[in-house]
Amino acid sequence: MASSPSLKPIQEIAQRYGITSEYLIPYGSSMAKVDLSLIDPQASKGKLVLVSSITPTPLGEGKTVTTIGLSQGFNFIGKPCIACIRQPSLGPVFGVKGGAAGGGKAQVLPMEKLNLHLTGDIHAITAAHNLAAAALDARLYHEHRLGDQFTEQTGLPMLNIDINHILWKRVVDHNDRALRHIMVGVGGGVNGVERADGYDITAASELMAILALSEDLKDMRQRIGRVILALDTHGKPITAERLEVAGAMTVLMKDAIQPTLMQTSENTPVLIHAGPFANIAHGNSSVIADRIGLQQADYVVTEAGFGSDMGMEKFFNIKYRQSGIKPSCVVLVATLRSLKANSGKFNIKPGQPLPAEIAESNVELLAQGCQNLGWHIANAKRYGLPVVIAINRFPTDSGEELEYLREYALSCGAEGVEISDAFAAGGAGTAKLAELVSRVCEKQQEVTLLYPDNISLLEKVQTLVNTYGAKQAVLTAQASDQLAQLEKAGFGHLPLCIAKTPLSISADPALKNVPKDFTVTISSFRVSAGAGFIRAYAGNIMTMPGLGTLPAYRNIDIDQSGDIIGLS
Amino acid sequence: MASSPSLKPIQEIAQRYGITSEYLIPYGSSMAKVDLSLIDPQASKGKLVLVSSITPTPLGEGKTVTTIGLSQGFNFIGKPCIACIRQPSLGPVFGVKGGAAGGGKAQVLPMEKLNLHLTGDIHAITAAHNLAAAALDARLYHEHRLGDQFTEQTGLPMLNIDINHILWKRVVDHNDRALRHIMVGVGGGVNGVERADGYDITAASELMAILALSEDLKDMRQRIGRVILALDTHGKPITAERLEVAGAMTVLMKDAIQPTLMQTSENTPVLIHAGPFANIAHGNSSVIADRIGLQQADYVVTEAGFGSDMGMEKFFNIKYRQSGIKPSCVVLVATLRSLKANSGKFNIKPGQPLPAEIAESNVELLAQGCQNLGWHIANAKRYGLPVVIAINRFPTDSGEELEYLREYALSCGAEGVEISDAFAAGGAGTAKLAELVSRVCEKQQEVTLLYPDNISLLEKVQTLVNTYGAKQAVLTAQASDQLAQLEKAGFGHLPLCIAKTPLSISADPALKNVPKDFTVTISSFRVSAGAGFIRAYAGNIMTMPGLGTLPAYRNIDIDQSGDIIGLS
Question: Which of A214, A217, A565, B137, by CA, is between 20 and 30 Å from B237?
Answer without folding.
Answer: A565
